[in-house]
Amino acid sequence: MDREAALKNASEPDRNTGPDRNAGLDKNTGSDGNTGPSQNHISCTYVTARYQETDQMGVIHHSVYPIWFEAGRTDWIKMAGMAYSDLERMDIMLPLIELTCAYKSYAKYEDELVIKTCMDKISKTRMSFYYEIYNTADENALIASGNTFHVFTNAGLKPVNMKKHNPGVFEKLENMVQAQ
User: Kind and range of the H or E element at 128?
Assistant: First the structure.
């Protein structure tokens, strides 16, 4: 199963109890034998579309989606047992070097949305995330999908080899991608 199908099929946590960290402990395997992200390594972040995020046509402005991707990425890192602030204290920065977003449909004011996030790839110097945003009123309604690409740097924004810079964090992240 590819990452898109795995995200779409990821069980959503009960909003009242928070993410179900035990959902989908086994890999998802498609008929082609490929594996997609384990549901255990997909974060679900809920947002309500705010009035200030709409444009003159009453739909969410395209510039809001990268902000929602960041919210999903932040939750994914928390799910991995860290926080962005923890990484920064360890002299690890993740500046964005590329972003893609494909707009499939639209969201409107007060729509309840879920951002499903997984880490896509990791190397010694870079990592990427994949996102899908769904309208919770119709889970089959994919609103947008995209990727962000990041480079590991120190606080001075000098690129670092993460495997050498902080082997523990690198191993933890790498293991999560391999488990997908």
Answer: strand 126-135
